[in-house]
Design goal:
Elements (H helix, E strand, L loop, with lengths): L13 H6 L16 H15 L53 E2 L13 H11 L2 H7 L13 H7 L5 H14 L1 E2 L6 H12 L9 H18 L2
Parallel strand pairs: 1-2
Helix pairs in contact: 5-6, 7-8
Length: 227
Amino acid sequence: MIHEFEYKQWDRLYPIMGAYGAAPWTPDDACGFSDPKMTDAIDFLRSMAFTDRSTPAPGEQADFFSGESAMVIFQVSKIGPLADVNWKWGTVPLPSGPAGDRQVIGQAGLGVFAKGRNLDLAKEFFLYSTNTENAAKLARFFPPPRASLLTAETLAETNPLLSKDQLQEVIVDSLKSGTVRPGHTGYAQLSEQTRAGLDAAWKPKADTRKVLRDLCTSIQPILRTGS
């Protein structure tokens, strides 16, 4: 199963899209949902939900942390509940797909607005938050961008639930081949339009190709204008 997806948070599907070599849009703002690779990716998930029943179907609930699912895709910041389970578990990188090894990299960051009211104070806070000591603390939730901190040894200090070997394999090594999730200046509106457009795909007899073509028609103007 895909953590927090529930057929609403469509951006949780990036690992499956990437495995098929698909992307929601291209760097030059062309819609990617009509790409046959995207159709294959969405149909793969549909087959899991409606054919072999290997993932919860729309309206069904399953929780990995309660032992209701054999596998879940999620990030290291969500691993905390595993401290309280009484069964054995392990970690593996995202599996390869038709497009090969396509690990997915999420991203978060801090910035300072040049037109802010307290620019000097904001700069001071930014430098404090991103210094070596505090960047190491943040490694508990986000793999650090500092190369000197991106080691299994550093990550192990703030992620006691994972061994150094696990951290090396699923985080450090994965970042070497990973692709950053696509962003856009109009992301908020794009995300909502995409969620609404994909609703039709989560029905057993949906025509995936038509649904995705219609979705492109809906979001292409937003992609071009950025809002």
